[in-house]
Amino acid sequence: MKPVAHGGDLGEVRRRFPDAPRPWIDLSTGINPVPYPVPDLPAEAWTRLPAHEEQRALIAAAARRYDVDPATVVAAPGTQALIQLLPRLVPKGRVAILGPTYEEHEVSWRRQGHDVSIVDTLPRDANVALLVNPDNPTGRLIMPDTLLGTKGLLVVDEAFIDFHPRSASVAGSGAVVLRSFGKTYGLAGLRLGFAIAPRAIADRLRDELGPWAVPGPALEIGRRALGDDAWLYDAGRRLAADGQRLDALLQDAGFSLVGGTALFRLARHAKAAAIAETLAAHGIHVRRFAREPSWLRFGLPGDGAAFARLAAALRAYDRA
Question: Could you please report the per-residue DSSP string of the chain?
Answer without folding.
Answer: -PPPP-SS--HHHHHH-TTS-SS-EE-SS---SSPPPPPP--THHHHSPPPHHHHHHHHHHHHHHHTS-GGGEEEESSHHHHHHHHHHHS-S-EEEEESS--HHHHHHHHHTT-EEEEESS--SS-SEEEEESS-TTT-----HHHHTT-SSEEEEE-TT-TTS-GGG--TTTTSEEEEESHHHHT-GGG--EEEE--HHHHHHHHHHH-TT-S-HHHHHHHHHHHT-HHHHHHHHHHHHHHHHHHHHHHHHTT-EEEEEETTEEEEE-TTHHHHHHHHHHTTEE-EE-TT-TTEEEEEPPSSHHHHHHHHHHHHHHHH-
